[in-house]
Amino acid sequence: MALKSHFSEKPILECGCDEVGRGCVAGPVCAAAVILPHDYHNDLINDSKQLTAKQREEIRLVIERDAIAWSVQTLSEQVIDKINILRASIQCMNNAVADLAVRPELLLIDGNKFQDVHHIPYHCIVKGDAQYLSIAAASILAKTHRDQLMDQLHEEYPMYDWKHNKGYPSPKQIAAIKEYGRSPYHRKSFHIKQLDPLLF
After folding, report:
1. Domain assignment of residue 7, yes or no
2. Could you give the CA distance from residue 90 to residue 70 in angstroms, rounded to a whole number?
3. 113, 141, 144, 148: which has the highest count of C-beta atoms within 10 A?
4. Within 13 A of 178's CA, how many CA atoms are on the CB side?
5. Residue 16 · residue 38 · CB < 8 Å
6. Which three-class secondary structure state does DSSP give residue 123?
7. Number of H helices, E strands in the chain
8. Partners of residue 19 on adjacent β-strands
9. Stated pTM of the model
10. The pLDDT of residue 32 is above 50
11. pLDDT for 192
């Protein structure tokens, strides 16, 4: 099923927002905001989870070229530990919106929780990245930018296998935490014991 190009029938500036990295034990949370033309169509754009890494990288370039405006922001592990991952995810999306070259008139938020700080109308849409092009585009930008960052961090701490797990709690990463302890990029607020208490 083709994704919808817009939420409002009026030709307003709609901005899709999505984040990635909420369920990770290491690395930042990353969020993107994307404004596409009102009647924009591109059959290649889809929920980032439905695409291969190669497809995401190729489509990322198309989105960055065709978008009216786009922004990607990150918030560090330290901020996540201080304010919690939900608040960090919402703040990160707000930061991405603030960084756009033009001010949107409507925000389309993937998920069911948001708190706007810019006084812009918004709609929370559960699984919105599988319904609206702008949210799907945001999911692709957030995913590709964060994956690139985790690949770079992998070179510094290869034992955690971030190149493959991107900071999500894979068995190899949990075993490495037990053997080597936490790196500076691990979130202290994520309780590893809950993932595999037999390791501790």
Report:
1. no
2. 17
3. 141
4. 15
5. no
6. strand
7. 6, 5
8. 31
9. 0.93
10. yes
11. 54
Spatial distance between the Cα atoms of 192 and 165, rounded to a whole number of angstroms: 15
Instruction: Indicate if the pLDDT at residue 194 is higher than 80.
Output: no
Q: Mention every residue, 6+ apart, whose C-beta is less than 8 A from residue 197.
A: none
Query: From the CB of residue 131, how many other CB atoms can be counted at a distance below 10 Å?
Result: 17
For residues 44-80, one letter each, b for 16 or more C-beta atoms within 10 angstroms of the residue's C-beta and e for the rest, the string is: ebbbbeebeeeebeebbeebeeebbbbbbbbbebebb
Tens-place pLDDT, residues 53-96: 999 999 999 999 999 999 999 999 999 999 999 999 999 999 99
- Domain of residue 41: give its range: 14-199
Q: What are the φ/ψ torsions at residue 17 (nearest 5 degrees)?
A: -130, 140
CATH classification of the domain holding 162: 3.30.420.10
Residue 193 in any domain: the answer is yes
State how many domains the chain has: 1
Q: Which residue type, as a one-letter code, is found at position 88? A: A
Count the neighbouring beta carbons within 10 Å of the beta carbon of residue 10.
Answer: 10
Task: Give the tens place of pLDDT for each residue, 119-170.
Answer: 999 999 999 999 999 999 999 999 999 999 999 999 999 999 999 999 999 9
66: in domain: yes
Length of the chain: 200
What is the rounded distance in angstroms from the CA atom of residue 97 to the CA atom of residue 94? 5
Residue 5 resides in a domain: no
